[in-house]
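User:
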Amino acid sequence: MKIQIVEVGARDGLQNETRVLEPAVRAELVNRLIGAGLGRLEAVSFVNPARVPQMAGAEEVLGLIRPRGAEVAGLVLNEKGYERAAAAGVRDIRYSFPASDAFARRNQNSTVSESLELAARLIGRARVDGRRLGVVLGTAFGCPFEGEIPARRVIALGERLLELQPGELILADTIGVGVPGQVRELLGALSNPVVPLGLHLHNTRNTGYANALAGVESGAVILDSSVGGIGGCPFAPKATGNIATEDLVYLLHRSGYATGIDLEQLLEVSVWLSEVLAKPLPGLVYKAGGFPPAG
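Assistant: Predicted structure:
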C-alpha cells in the first residue's frame, strides 16, 4: 500500500522559525526535497506577510521551484489568499480553518460557521477553475484556547465537508495533543469512498508517530510531515514541531508501506537544513541514520 506524504517543511516548518529565510533559500529547500523523491509539497502560504514574515514572497518562491513532476501546493486562509494562489498559477490549493471558534477568531478573524461557508464557496470556485482544493480542519484533536474539542463536533464538520467533495480532507492536530484512539474514532466515522482522508500531525507530546501509524491503519492515505521535524503554529501557544518526514518515512518503510521517497537523500536534506538554520533539528533519524545502514 502506498501512502502519500505531503512535505510541509517549507511552509508549516519555516513559518515558526525565528530565522527568516529568503525566498531563494526556501525554493532551494523545496528543490532538494523534490530531488529526494517528495512528490507533493506544500511550499508556500498566501497570508499577510505582516503577520507571518517567514512566508513573505510566496510568488517569488514558486518562480524558483523546479517541480520535475512534483505537485506544488499552496495554503490559503481566506478568499484573498485563494485569489493570490490562483493568480500565481497554483493548481493544488489547501484551505485551512479550525474546528474551534476561539482559534478561528485569533487565526482568521472568523468563526467556524463562516469558515465552513467559505469552504463551500472555495470548493465551488476551484471546481470551476479546474483546481484541486483540499480542506485542512485544524484543532481537530484539541484547541489551545477551548481545550477538548468534542469528537461529535469534528465529525459533524467533517461530514458537511465531505458532502461538498473537496479534493481531500485533512484532520490536523494543530497543537499535538491527539492520541491513537482519537485518530481511529474520527477516521472511522468519516471513512468514505470518494474523498481521500489524511492527517496533519505535530509531535509536541511525542504521540505524532503513533498517531500516524494508527491513521494509516484506519484509512488515512495522506500524511503531512516536515523535514527535520521543524514547525509549529505562530498563533497557537506551545505548538511545536511537526512529525519529521525522515522519521515518518523510516517508520512507514519498516512497516511495509511504500512512499516513493529516497530516505538517504532525504537525510542529506535534513543535514543541509540544520546547517542553514544553524541548529540541530528535532528529527532523530537524520542523526542516527536509517537501518540497515546504507552501503
